[in-house]
Amino acid sequence: MGVASVEFIDPREPVAIVPILRAGLALSEHASSILPATKTYHLGILRDEETLQPTIYLNKLPDNFPEGSRVFVVDPMLATGGTIVAALDMIKERGVDNNQIKVVSAVAAPPALKKLSEKFPGLHVYAGIVDPTVNDKGFIIPGFGDAGDRSFGT
Fold first, then answer.
1. Which of 153, 123, 128 is CA-nearest to residue 143?
2. Per-residue confidence at 14, pLDDT binned at 50, 70, 90?
3. Which site from 5, 39, 100, 110 is most exposed, i.e. has the minimal number of CB atoms within 10 Å?
4. Contact status, residue 127 vs residue 78, Cβ threshold 8 Å
5. What is the arithmetic mean of pLDDT over 15-29?
6. Separation CA 55–CA 89 (nearest Å)
């Protein structure tokens, strides 16, 4: 066994959960039972299947996050990185530093991780697995299909 770094969350500090709809809901569902005093702010972002560019269709973020907020952004799939970068840009515009943001994902791919490391130094990304490839349609290979469809049986 190796040494693991640990970061404690002071329950007096504000904690926000930002699921990227709809698939992010599955990862954020029980966050409040683990992290006390959380607020959830929904962010809806679609990826255009032709251009792979993100489009924001719902923004329930606050105008500004309270000072010292820790923000957990949850999106099960980080493929090209376009969606998560758009989300983080919006969060940073509301006063949150890179080191206060945590990205939680089930599967990530190198293009997304590269974009995140270049654009957001100090950002922590937690992924269950890193799959090696993104195809020309922006899908993670092997991946596990559409996370929202799998989560909600559609």
1. 128
2. confident
3. 5
4. yes
5. 82
6. 13
> What's the chain's Rg over C-alpha atoms?
15
pLDDT value at 141 more than 70 = yes
Q: Which residue bears the tokens 């899908």?
A: 139
Amino acid at 89: D
Taking residues 109-121, report their average pLDDT: 95
Between CA 72 and CA 120 the distance in angstroms is 15
- In angstroms, the CA 82 to CA 111 distance is 10
Residue with tokens 């329950």, as numbered in its chain: 11
Do residues 17 and 41 touch, judged by C-beta distance below 8 A?
Answer: yes
Residue by residue, DSSP assigns 13-64 as S-EEEEEEETTHHHHHTTHHHHSTTEEE--EEEEE-TTT--EEEEEE---SS
Task: Tell me if 95 sits within 8 A of 88, measured CB to CB.
Answer: no
pTM for the whole structure: 0.85
Q: Which of 139, 104, 90 is nearest to 19 (CA)?
A: 104
* Residue 10 burial (10 A CB sphere; 0-12, 13-18, 19+): exposed
Average pLDDT over residues 67-82: 91
Report the alpha-carbon distance of residue 50 to residue 34 in Å, rounded.
Answer: 38
